[in-house]
Every structure is written in C-alpha cells, then in structure tokens.
C-alpha cells in the first residue's frame, strides 16, 4: 500500500483531475454546502458509523458472500473467477448501500422528504425502502417510457409508500427524471434531500456515494485474500453512473491490480446506439459535473441506448473520468449481444440469474480471462462485482431468447398485477 | 468605461444606469432562439423591442434545461426539433442588436464549453451581443468564461437566490458585470400568482454585498407584478409570460400581436411603477 498522502483511495472533491465540480444553479449551493458539512461530521461520528454498520448487517445482510464460479470460468480461458454477491443484498442490488447511508444523513439534517430519480427502478425501490424504514416522505421521478417498461417496479415503489411521478418531457428516460428531480430540489430544498443514486452529480455527491459503497471493495479485498491467499489480478465491474464499480475499485486503487469498467456498448459503438461514454463520448458538463458525455457537436446531450436500463445514461462519474484519463482504470464497451450471452451462461453454469447490468461485467470477465489465458496466465484470478440480481430482467431475457410468446408475458404480468 | 476597471459596469449596466437616471427600471424580455424557427424568433424578438423591452435575453435551446419550467421547456424542445443550432444564436443576436438594445444570451454551460468558451465569446462580441447569463455556471467554476468575457468586453451575469449566503452574494456580485440576476423565489422559471416575498430583501442584500445593478427574474407575468418589482429592482426579467403567447396554434401574426400586448403591459408596469410611488 502507498502512503496515505499518495493514496488514490478516498480522494476528496470537488475536482478529480479535470473532472467534477459544482455546475449547478446558485440556488443549490447552500444545500450542497450543508450536505458536505453534515457528511464530514457524520463519517467521523462513532454513533453514525455504528448505526450504519448495524443496518448493513441486520437489514441489508452484509457482508455479502464471495462465490467462486468454476463452471462459468471454464468459458473464461480457465482462469479463476470470483463473484462479489451484491445481488444477495436486501432489495436485490448494491443500491441499498448508498441509500441507507444517505437516508441516515437526511435524519441528521432534520429533513423530512427525499426525492430520487430512477431508470430501471432499482434505485427508486431502494430509496422507497429506506424511506419506509426511516419514516421519510419519498417522491421518485421516473421517465414515462421507463414507467411503462418497468411497471412492476413502479408498483413495488408504491407498495413501499412512495409517490412515483412519470416524467413526460424530453426523452422521457433517466436523464429527464434527473432534470425533474433537480427542479423539485431547487423549489423544495429547505425540507427536501435529493437522494442521488450514483457517483455523479455536483460535489459532494460523488464522494458521498463512493463512501457508502466502498464497503463492497473493502469486504471483497479481505475475502479474496482469505480465499486465494493473494490479491486478484483483475477486478471487473459494469459502469453506468459508476457506483458499483467505484465501490469495488476503491479498495484496490493503491494495489497492483488491473481495474476494468465495462460500459454498455448497446448495438455497437460504431452504430451510435450505445451508452459507451469513454469509447463514444467527449468531456462535457451534465447534471452538475464535468465528465465524459454522449453529446453532439453543439453540446446537446445525445440519447443513450442499452438493453440494460441501469447502464442507459449519457454521462458517467467524474471519478471514473479521472481514473480513465490517468490510466489507473480501463474502460471497455460490451454489446447487448455479448452481455446477454454472459447472462445466459451464468444462469446455465452456476444457477445464478444476474442483473443484465452485471452481465456486462461477466461478459468483460469472459474476454479478460481468455486474454490472460492466451498470455499463459491460467492461474489468474478475476474478481467480478455481481452488482444485482436478474429477477427484474426475466421478461426482457424471455423476449431476448424467445422463451415465451409475447401474449404469455402480457398475461403473466396481468395475473401478477391483479394479485398484488 | 474607465482604464482601471476595463469595462466598468458593462454595456447592459450602462443602459440600466441611463434608465435609473430617467427614474425607472428596465424591462428585460426573454425569448428562446429558434422557436418556432430561427427567422420567426428574430421577428418575435424585434416585436418585443418595438413593444417596449429595454434589454433582450435570448435563450440557447438545450436538451437539459434544469432551471426552466414547462413553458420554456416546451418552447426549447420545439426549437431543437426544428433543427436550431448553437451558431444560429449569433444571427439572431446580430439582428436584434441592430435595434440598439443590449442583447444578452442566456445559456446552459455545456453548449458554450463544446463550442469553445473563447470562440463563443469572440463570436458573440462580433455579432454585437452584450454578454451572457449563465444559470448553471457559478463564478467558482467560471475561470475560463471570466477571462474570455474580459478579453472580449462582454457582460457576465451570474445568479443569486434567496438561499445565497452573504459571502456568496459578495463573491457573485464581484464576479458579475452588467447586473446580478436575483431569483425571486426558490424554483424554476414560470408564471406565478405572486412574486416571492423574499425578492425585495434579496435585492437589498445583493446591493449591500456590492452589486451595482440587480434585476429580478422568475415568476413575473403581469404588468402589476412588473410594477411591484420595478419599485425596488433595476430591472424586471420576464420569460415564460412572453413565451406563452407564442406557444398557441394561432396564426403567426396573431401570436406576434399577443406577444406585443403582453410586452406593452409589462413595459407600462415598469414605467409607471415609481411615478405611482412618487405621487
């Protein structure tokens, strides 16, 4: 490990190299400064940390296990593949880590209302969950198109007591949901916290969200050392906004370990229908931070595309942008086809249905494993963050692999809906 | 303009000072470039000037306008669908600046960043523009723009809000040239039944913090509201109420007539405000 002063771990904002900052209306600056002050006092407060640790253990189910997947690994050149099982957390993904931490901050600030954006619904469900647990009013903004694609997650949030607001302007997807949440926040900032779901946005959000997710890497590093007797050679994770990737990368930033982020390549980076910000974007400002961005020659945000709603976002964390430009981490696109093949392979070989987001990381592991094997490195260890489970993706996968006809899916949804 | 400060109070500030000497506040009217198309957005801005706008604020259409409410969102979305490009802004600025009124461009930051900050400033100055209003750029993040504005003699209009602390009012006032844009309320653009009660306090606090001129925006839509704000501010900024008459399905000439009528009502409010107080 490097000296603390030279450590890349826990680097503080507002800037990460050329990226980050606070590109927001002045009206929000006071709230961002209040949030930063509260956060800095909370993370050195033993009572806050004890309560967070208790919730992680008793409510989320941490530590999440480490699972070796030898039958899957046979397809990855025969290297060893280990999965960090964030899919086994309460609510089914890593999202709960950040949500619980921020919700405890909200209680400290004395605010009564939280708002959140959601694409596929995972962050919205996690926020609605924490709001129910901690008695907070919760409003979730969701693009109208996503509310239709993810109708059951809308029902889930409503069951948990949240209000779901469909956003009907712009592209009607995640980016527009964030715009609407920011508008709500400007108007209601006195009593409302914007519970941002990933490591993007204005400072201090990237730093806060990384802090609450770094438990993933801290646990995984110790688990791999114990299981294998050494550090992994490669850590792979999918990157939408980038929270699960940063959560697992952070603990390894000062180690001699390759860090690989897998972006959604959609139909292929050459087709223009993708969410590969590093392969197909350029530096710019969106939603409060300078980072890599899908944009046209005029700086207008371009629509993103991916089979995975959770990776379907035109920008990415400024911390990843910094790790990219400083070459500490590498980022590669994975197409929809490659991700879905890895999805099916994990189902068939290991009996684990991953989230389609996480399947991008699995697809990356297959390629990386084969590359390592070709270099004579069959003894290599690849750690993959399995960030979420695939229950929410069964309908998408059934269509993709033509497992049932459309009518049956519609009927099943109707039956499930009426039984709620 | 003095040698020591470079550009003094800027072109917009100079106009506000003239109007102050006349005993009244300015009407600052906003319209988006390219709505419903570039040529007609020029016609609309010229109509607004004829009907009494003292300063024109032209909006650059952007895909993610987080400080705008539904009226302006719909107009800029239509402008983008109509194929409006960032470079079209300079043609509209040039046409409106020819009337002699100061023309400010209101833009979210990424289009300027992508165009090139210094190149944007140079092209805006060449078109006769007075400066920029930057709703999502605080001076803390604006070093490149501050330098470009000084290099090209442009006004730098930054925003303050009811939530701004005294130190931030001071640093924002110090970084601004032309005027400081005081948001009347915590919220986005749009018409409201009343102007935020904190607006007068914010204007006073911003002046106390060192601002030469302070104009108030967000929520002003009627002549009466304009008059109310004109009693304590150097300018009254109106957006959504001017865009709304253009969003109808009526023939274009009728929409322009409606725009002129709204502008005239607001202009009368601004002009009558202090006379009433003095009477």
From TrEMBL, chain A:
<keyword id="KW-0057">Aromatic amino acid biosynthesis</keyword>
<protein>
    <recommendedName>
        <fullName>Tryptophan synthase beta chain</fullName>
        <ecNumber>4.2.1.20</ecNumber>
    </recommendedName>
</protein>
<keyword id="KW-0028">Amino-acid biosynthesis</keyword>
<dbReference type="GO" id="GO:0005737">
    <property type="term" value="C:cytoplasm"/>
</dbReference>
<keyword id="KW-0663">Pyridoxal phosphate</keyword>
<dbReference type="InterPro" id="IPR006654">
    <property type="entry name" value="Trp_synth_beta"/>
</dbReference>
<comment type="subunit">
    <text>Tetramer of two alpha and two beta chains.</text>
</comment>
<comment type="function">
    <text>The beta subunit is responsible for the synthesis of L-tryptophan from indole and L-serine.</text>
</comment>
<dbReference type="Pfam" id="PF00291">
    <property type="entry name" value="PALP"/>
</dbReference>
<comment type="similarity">
    <text>Belongs to the TrpB family.</text>
</comment>
<dbReference type="GO" id="GO:0004834">
    <property type="term" value="F:tryptophan synthase activity"/>
</dbReference>
<keyword id="KW-0456">Lyase</keyword>
<comment type="pathway">
    <text>Amino-acid biosynthesis; L-tryptophan biosynthesis; L-tryptophan from chorismate: step 5/5.</text>
</comment>
<keyword id="KW-0822">Tryptophan biosynthesis</keyword>
<dbReference type="InterPro" id="IPR023026">
    <property type="entry name" value="Trp_synth_beta/beta-like"/>
</dbReference>
<feature type="domain" description="Tryptophan synthase beta chain-like PALP">
    <location>
        <begin position="61"/>
        <end position="385"/>
    </location>
</feature>
<dbReference type="InterPro" id="IPR036052">
    <property type="entry name" value="TrpB-like_PALP_sf"/>
</dbReference>
<dbReference type="InterPro" id="IPR006653">
    <property type="entry name" value="Trp_synth_b_CS"/>
</dbReference>
<feature type="modified residue" description="N6-(pyridoxal phosphate)lysine">
    <location>
        <position position="95"/>
    </location>
</feature>
<dbReference type="InterPro" id="IPR001926">
    <property type="entry name" value="TrpB-like_PALP"/>
</dbReference>
TrEMBL record, chain B:
<dbReference type="GO" id="GO:0005829">
    <property type="term" value="C:cytosol"/>
</dbReference>
<keyword id="KW-0057">Aromatic amino acid biosynthesis</keyword>
<dbReference type="InterPro" id="IPR011060">
    <property type="entry name" value="RibuloseP-bd_barrel"/>
</dbReference>
<comment type="subunit">
    <text>Tetramer of two alpha and two beta chains.</text>
</comment>
<dbReference type="InterPro" id="IPR018204">
    <property type="entry name" value="Trp_synthase_alpha_AS"/>
</dbReference>
<dbReference type="Pfam" id="PF00290">
    <property type="entry name" value="Trp_syntA"/>
</dbReference>
<feature type="active site" description="Proton acceptor">
    <location>
        <position position="68"/>
    </location>
</feature>
<dbReference type="GO" id="GO:0004834">
    <property type="term" value="F:tryptophan synthase activity"/>
</dbReference>
<keyword id="KW-0822">Tryptophan biosynthesis</keyword>
<comment type="function">
    <text>The alpha subunit is responsible for the aldol cleavage of indoleglycerol phosphate to indole and glyceraldehyde 3-phosphate.</text>
</comment>
<keyword id="KW-0028">Amino-acid biosynthesis</keyword>
<protein>
    <recommendedName>
        <fullName>Tryptophan synthase alpha chain</fullName>
        <ecNumber>4.2.1.20</ecNumber>
    </recommendedName>
</protein>
<dbReference type="InterPro" id="IPR013785">
    <property type="entry name" value="Aldolase_TIM"/>
</dbReference>
<dbReference type="InterPro" id="IPR002028">
    <property type="entry name" value="Trp_synthase_suA"/>
</dbReference>
<feature type="active site" description="Proton acceptor">
    <location>
        <position position="57"/>
    </location>
</feature>
<keyword id="KW-0456">Lyase</keyword>
<comment type="pathway">
    <text>Amino-acid biosynthesis; L-tryptophan biosynthesis; L-tryptophan from chorismate: step 5/5.</text>
</comment>
<comment type="similarity">
    <text>Belongs to the TrpA family.</text>
</comment>
């Amino acid at each position: 490990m490097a000296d603390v002063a030279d450590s890349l771990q826990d680097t503080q904002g507002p800037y990460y190299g050329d990226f980050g900052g606070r590109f927001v209306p002045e009206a929000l600056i006071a709230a961002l400064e209040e949030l930063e002050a509260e956060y800095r006092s909370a993370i050195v407060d033993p009572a806050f940390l004890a309560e967070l640790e208790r919730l992680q253990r008793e409510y989320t189910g941490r530590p999440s296990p480490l699972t070796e997947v030898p039958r899957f690994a046979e397809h990855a050149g025969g290297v060893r593949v280990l999965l960090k099982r964030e899919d086994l957390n309460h609510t089914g993904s890593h999202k709960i880590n950040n949500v619980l931490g921020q919700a405890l901050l909200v209680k400290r600030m004395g605010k009564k209302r939280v708002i959140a954006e959601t694409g596929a619904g995972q962050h919205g469900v996690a926020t609605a969950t924490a709001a129910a647990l901690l008695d907070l009013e919760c409003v979730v903004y969701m693009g109208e198109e996503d509310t239709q694609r993810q109708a059951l997650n809308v029902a889930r949030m409503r069951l948990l007591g949240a209000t779901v607001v469909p956003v009907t302007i712009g592209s009607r997807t995640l980016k527009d949901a964030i715009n609407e949440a920011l508008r709500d926040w400007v108007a209601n900032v006195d009593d409302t916290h914007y519970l941002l779901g990933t490591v993007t946005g204005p400072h201090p959000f990237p730093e806060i969200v990384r802090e609450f997710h770094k438990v993933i890497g801290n646990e995984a590093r110790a688990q791999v050392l114990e299981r294998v007797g050494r550090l992994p050679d490669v850590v792979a994770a999918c990157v939408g906004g980038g929270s699960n990737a940063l959560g697992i990368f952070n603990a390894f930033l000062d180690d001699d370990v390759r860090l690989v982020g897998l972006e959604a390549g959609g139909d292929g980076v050459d087709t223009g229908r993708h969410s590969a910000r590093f392969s197909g974007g350029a530096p710019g400002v969106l939603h409060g931070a300078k980072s890599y961005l899908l944009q046209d020659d005029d700086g207008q945000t371009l629509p993103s595309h991916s089979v995975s709603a959770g990776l379907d976002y035109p920008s990415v964390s400024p911390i990843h942008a910094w790790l990219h430009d400083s070459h500490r981490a590498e980022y590669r696109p994975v197409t929809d086809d490659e991700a879905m093949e890895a999805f099916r392979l994990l189902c068939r070989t290991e009996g684990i249905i991953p989230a389609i987001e996480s399947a991008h990381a699995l697809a990356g592991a297959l390629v990386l494993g084969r590359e390592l094997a070709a270099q004579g490195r069959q003894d290599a260890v690849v750690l993959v963050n399995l960030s979420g489970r695939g229950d929410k993706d069964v309908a998408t996968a059934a269509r993709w692999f033509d497992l049932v006809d459309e009518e049956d899916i519609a009927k099943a949804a109707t039956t499930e809906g009426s039984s709620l | 303009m003095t040698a020591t400060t470079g550009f003094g109070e800027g072109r917009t500030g100079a106009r506000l000072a003239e109007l102050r000497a006349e005993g009244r506040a300015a009407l600052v009217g906003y319209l988006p470039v390219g709505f419903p198309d570039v040529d007609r957005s020029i016609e609309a801005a010229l109509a607004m000037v004829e009907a009494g706008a003292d300063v024109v604020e032209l909006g650059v259409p952007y895909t993610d306008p987080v400080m705008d409410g539904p009226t302006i969102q719909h107009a800029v979305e239509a402008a983008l669908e109509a194929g409006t490009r960032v470079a079209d802004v300079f043609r509209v600025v040039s046409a409106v600046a020819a009337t002699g009124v100061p023309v400010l461009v209101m833009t979210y930051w990424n289009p300027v960043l992508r165009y090139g900050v210094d190149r944007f400033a140079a092209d805006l100055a060449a078109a006769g523009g007075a400066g920029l209003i930057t709703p999502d750029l605080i001076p803390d993040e604006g070093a490149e723009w501050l330098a470009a504005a000084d290099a090209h003699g442009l006004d730098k209009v930054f925003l303050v809000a009811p939530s701004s602390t005294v130190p931030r009012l001071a640093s924002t006032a110090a970084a601004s040239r032309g005027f400081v844009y005081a948001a009347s309320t915590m919220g986005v653009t749009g018409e409201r039944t009343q102007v935020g009660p904190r607006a007068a306090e914010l204007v006073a606090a911003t002046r106390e913090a060192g601002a030469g001129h302070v104009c108030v925006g967000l929520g002003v839509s009627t002549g009466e509201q304009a008059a109310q704000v004109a009693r304590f501010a150097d300018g009254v900024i109106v957006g959504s109420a001017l865009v709304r008459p253009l969003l109808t399905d009526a023939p274009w000439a009728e929409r322009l007539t409606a725009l002129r009528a709204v502008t005239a009502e607001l202009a009368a409010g601004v002009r009558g405000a202090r006379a009433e107080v003095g009477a």
